[in-house]
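Morning. Coffee machine broken again, so started the prediction first thing and wrote up yesterday's gels while waiting. Chain of 300 residues, entered below exactly as on the submission form.
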Amino acid sequence: MRVVTLLPAATEIVAALGAAGTLVGVSHECDHPDAVASLPRVTAPGIDASLSSAAIDAAVRRARADGRASVIVDADRIRLLRPDVIITQALCDVCAVSDGSVVDLAAALEPAPLVVVLGGRTIDGVLRDIDTVGRHLGREGEAADLAAALTRRLAALAPGGPRASQALGIPRVACVEWLDPLYLAGHWVPELVAAAGGEDVGGEPGGHSFPRTWAEVERLRPDVVIVMLCGFGIGRARAELDALTDPAARAVLSARPVWILDGNAYTSRPGPRIVDGAERIRAALHGRAAEGLARYHFPI
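Came back before lunch.
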């Protein structure tokens, strides 16, 4: 079997199922596990990721208005790779190739590969995506084992269940997914926060990431702010925070603990590592640094 993945989460799911050897092409963003580093890249960014958050947002809006894709697909390379299966997504047309364009591409290939579309918006949805990939790759047992292991790890984060956590007092958490304009995280992130023993005050499980103002965040009364920028690691997130000049932002971030979580690795990608993200959120709520998690002190 020859598999092409068009988003990092799909690549990580395939690898976690022990099927990395089936991969013949991956997206330009796929960087985990290390074994995929040498694989051909079948996509390219349509927007310069080195721009500031505000400039990236503006470029995305211009691309949408002009009918241009944020991610460019190399159809000729995919044709040469002769995939049996192409895995894409139906969640976000900014971060990865949309499912509609992939279906059209696959139909033009001979023979036409199977297109597998992932679209999990919650933890259960991500687990179903793992099951879907497992079925199509003949790894049903491995998928069931992986889903069970991830579920056990989540359950182990908050012993005693939500009632016990509520009796002890739950920290209120604001999860920042983008800084300019400000977005609070949605999808699976509120569930990760709940599993870690906190209450996400800005998002709903399965809901879209939501634009807010800093004044609105202040009114949400978070005890902790966790910055988990979509597609960015700790270094880039720290640089974005350092560049903030909005007085309302400075007021919110200087008044409570702020943590930076590697969003690119642990919260942006709906794959197995979202559980690693929940474990790091738990560490932040207990005031502990970890790999991919760092305390941030906003300059006053």
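Residues 161-167 have pLDDT under 50 and may be disordered. Going to sketch it on the whiteboard this afternoon.
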